[in-house]
Structure formats: structure tokens, C-alpha cells
User: Fold this.
Amino acid sequence: MSGFELDQRLARDSDLIVSLGLCQLRIMNDSRWPWLMLVPERPGMSEIFDLEPLDQSQLSVEVNMVGAALKAVTQAEKINIGALGNIVRQLHIHLIARSAGDQNWPGPVWGFGRSEPYDDHQRQLFVRKILEALSS
Amino acid sequence: MSGFELDQRLARDSDLIVSLGLCQLRIMNDSRWPWLMLVPERPGMSEIFDLEPLDQSQLSVEVNMVGAALKAVTQAEKINIGALGNIVRQLHIHLIARSAGDQNWPGPVWGFGRSEPYDDHQRQLFVRKILEALSS
Assistant:
């Protein structure tokens, strides 16, 4: 794995769904919104433009693939995609399905309120739908 | 321009710096943070994964190029990159230079407080530096 280690806060707040070519696809353990995260398995990365050019291209492919799957599964009005990293510096990209009337709509999800963990069944159902959408 | 028209709210809140291969590079008229925006000149786009595959690749190139320039110019701790679109649905990508102690750090900029317009000199200086960084 060339020295990549997942940041402990990202590990605590999310669970691995599957490893793609470049990134770990993870689900945030917060049921308030359908919320996925991509973490490139490259050590020492903080900005997307720090990645090697081929990895930048691959990241674009994976972000678009996962974004489309998230939209297909949720039928959300808008997919919010963001790479912030002001708190956790390890490069990670959020993908969140948003719809009118959800918590803090139309504002951003980051820093809003407290997370509400999934129950296992609810999470498994969402993960299965995402995997089906990715493979279709 | 194949029917592309800039959303009126994006036009009101930002000014054109330069047209890149795919996107308009614009500066947000808010001096609280160094804040740029990329708007793909394609009609009817709302999600990045709605773009044609070649445009997705080009968007990745332009986001990374502008992100690196913004970091070089500002020496910011972190570049925040986000495609939200909950309010303005026309596809646009924000790039914001963030540093500890700036307004709402480490929270997101979207929806926070009121914009503080640039004076002309300050804006011109920032734009010139960005253009220099892009061409170097």
C-alpha cells in the first residue's frame, strides 16, 4: 500500500464499502444525509493537485462514478461534492445527496449539528444499493 | 457558445477573469477569502457527472490547475474545493483559500455571514497574481 494509512478520525467517522482503483469508498456514519467519502490511498496527500497527474485523472473518474451512483440510488435533487480538509488534513472527498427540506438545506452539511449514527440494517441497505448502482 | 448562458446570480456575485478551455474562471466579489469559481461553458449542466467524459477530464485539469495557482498565490493552509449547487443549479465549482483564523475557520464559507466586496485595486492585484501563477 506504499505507506498509506487512513487518518484515525476518518476511520472513526466512516466505514469502508469497497476499494476502487485509487480510493477507498467509505460511508459516513451519519444517517442525516446519504453521505459517501472517497479517500485516495496515497500517503501524504492533502490537496487534489498534489496527486500525480494519472491519479488526478483517476480521482475524477471515481468521483464522477460514485456521484452518479449516489444520485441514481437517492434520486436527490443535488449531489454536493467537496474537498475541504480544514480539520482533517488527509485528502478526502465528500459526496452528499441533498434534497429540499433535509437538515440545513440549502446550506452545507459540514459543521452542522451532530451526527446521527445508522442502525446496521439501514446502513447495509444503503451500501447494497450503492454497490448495485456501481456495478450496473 | 452552443447555448451556454451564465446564471444571473453567478454573474451578479462574480467577475470573469479568463476563459479556460472548458470553464470560465471567475473571482467571487467577496474579499473575506480568496475565492475563485469555475463555470463550465456547457448549457444545462448541474452535476459534474452530467458532463461528457472528455469535459469531465478537462474539468479535472482546470480545477487542479486553478487550485494549485490559488495555493501558490495565497500560501493558504488549505484549498477548499466544492460543487454544491443547492441554491444556484447551474454547475459551478468553488475554490477557496483557507487559513487558520479566517472567517468561520475551520467551517465552510457557504452560507456564512455577508459578502464584503473588494475595492477595485485589491481585486486587480489578486487577479493579476492568479493570472501570473496560471501562466508560470
About this structure: The first strand of chain B starts at residue 14 and ends at 19. Chain B has a mean pLDDT of 97. Chain B has one domain: 8-135.
